[in-house]
Design brief:
By secondary structure, the protein is an alpha/beta fold. The chain has a single domain, classed as Rossmann fold (3-Layer(aba) Sandwich), CATH 3.40.50.150. About 40% of the residues lie in helices and about 20% in strands. The protein contains ten helices and ten strands. The strands form two sheets. It has an eight-stranded mixed β-sheet, with helices on both faces. It has a two-stranded antiparallel sheet with strand order 2-3. The two termini are about 35 Å apart. The relative contact order is 0.18.
Length: about 270
């Protein structure tokens, strides 16, 4: 399994993941105190939807492109997400680190980590205009754990690996458990493809067994040609107050447009 961001930018999974990301960041901004965002596998920051890789799959046409005509009243996270996407231009899709950088205030900080040299170079360029964004070239798992907890003791950790390794789920689960031990009150947003329900259940079960007190999942499924990704999940640890309600509201709008089933489910703790 290989899920390099550049091939799938703006697809159904990106849309749901990035609405969730924006919802969390808007919540963190409700307090004046600064917060940190740590992105373990940041990618290149911005993606050309007309480029060779994205054009090869064409997944954005069944994803973000279907939202561009939305004009009705929307939940704040969805409205803000669409505004940020449109600000970049019709063919440039912002990845998680760029969306975060655009929402940060002067007191907030972003650290974006990327291992692949070419992606790292592009990420540096994408985040160069943002003084409170730092970029690192390294192992996202090791660096993310090492950098926790952030000095602010508030923040979000994003784990969004490309799933290049056959044991990625095991590596990811261990990194999350290590990270949660160091930053127990942090918010964690974890993305994963679902090729097997058993594998997804084993992964979330292993993470939750590490002592997580509050967590929910957002599971999105579409109809896609055989061999293409048709289902993806988000595991959100320590979701902020009202996050579930925000995602329910966004899902009501997104599901028919993306022709998707979107399920928000509490896995530990109570709303």
């Amino acid at each position: 399994m290989n899920y390099r961001h550049v091939y799938h930018a703006g697809n159904f999974a990106d849309v749901v993941k990035h609405v969730a990301l924006v919802a969390i960041l808007l919540h963190l901004k409700k307090k004046d105190a600064g917060f940190a965002v740590l992105d373990s596998h940041a990618g290149r920051g911005v993606y050309d939807l007309t480029g060779e890789e994205a054009a090869r799959t064409g997944e954005a046409r069944a994803g973000v492109a279907r939202l561009m005509d939305l004009r009705d009243e929307m939940p704040p996270a969805l409205a803000t997400y669409l505004q940020l996407v449109k600000e970049g231009g019709p063919a440039r899709y912002p990845g998680s680190p760029l969306l975060a950088a655009r929402l940060l205030r002067t007191q907030d900080r972003l650290t974006a980590i990327e291992k692949h040299p070419e992606e790292f170079a592009a990420l540096k360029d994408a985040l160069a205009p943002y003084a409170n964004a730092a970029v690192e070239n390294g192992d996202g798992y090791a660096r993310a754990v090492k950098l926790l907890p952030p000095p602010s003791r508030r923040g979000l950790v994003v784990f969004d690996p490309p799933f290049e390794s056959p044991d990625e789920f095991e590596t990811l689960a261990q990194a999350i458990r290590d990270a949660v031990r160091k930053f127990a009150n942090g918010i964690f947003l974890i993305w994963y493809p679902i090729k097997s329900q058993a594998a997804a259940d084993a992964f979330t079960g292993e993470v939750l067994a590490g002592g997580v007190q509050k967590a929910l999942t957002v599971d999105t499924q579409i109809s896609a040609p055989e061999g293409n990704l048709d289902r993806a999940g988000l595991l959100v640890i320590n979701p902020p107050y009202g996050f579930d309600v925000e995602m329910y509201a966004a899902a009501e709008i997104l599901a028919p447009l993306l022709r998707a089933d979107i399920a928000v489910k509490w896995r530990a703790g109570t709303p």
